[in-house]
Amino acid sequence: MKNKTTREEILHVAYTCFKAKGFDEVSVDDICRKAGITKPTFYKYIDSKESILTSYYDEVCQDIYLHFSHIVQADTYYEQFHLFYDMIIDRSIELGPKLIAKMLDLNLSKDFNSFATRDQLTKIVEVFIDKGKKANEFQSSEDTKTLYDACNFAFLGLEYKWAVKQGQLDWKQAFYQITDAILQSKPTYKG
């Protein structure tokens, strides 16, 4: 057994187990055994097995913060907008449609706020949209908040559809077609 275990290590082991066996087939004991930790150590870092999935987007948000400088180095606000959403979609695809579906299911029975907007990320995207409008990259006359909400709802709807179709949907392409229409933008991003 290792001397120091981190939350990230436990999450990594849990996601690996979930992908291999399925969420419902993996117990906290299975995660602890695979991670080489005790249950008290697990519960020191994690509230419950369900919270691993229901807090997934909090982990994704932290990843975006860590890689934010990469996003803002893009040449256009259109590209910044796409790089931002690329990170979220890529991480969701990495998790897989079955686990995204399980996260959706858990939130349908009780709102764990997995899909709530995160204020800091909302502000970031709103800045991309606002500056993109001023640079004439986005030509919609709608206010920035409305445009963000429309893009966010398109994202959530496509996430649901992607999970239902078990990954048999080009989520990125569909999302960018819809957001190009919402924002009235001319595609320049080749992500």
Verbal overview:
This protein is an all-alpha fold and 191 residues long. It has helices at 7-21, 28-35, 39-45, 49-54, 56-66, 68-72, 77-95, 97-109, 119-134, 144-164, 171-183. The protein is elongated and about 55 Å long. The termini are far apart. The model has no long low-confidence stretch (mean pLDDT 92).
- Count of β-strands: 0
The tally of helices reads: 11
- Proportion in β-strands: under 5%
Radius of gyration: 18 Å
Low-confidence stretches: none
What's this entry about, in short?
With 191 residues, the protein is mostly helical. 70% of the residues lie in helices and 0% in strands.
Protein traits:
mainly alpha; 70% helix; 191 residues
Topology of this structure?
Elements: H1 7-21, H2 28-35, H3 39-45, H4 49-54, H5 56-66, H6 68-72, H7 77-95, H8 97-109, H9 119-134, H10 144-164, H11 171-183
Helix pairs in contact: 1-2, 5-7, 7-9, 8-10, 9-10, 10-11
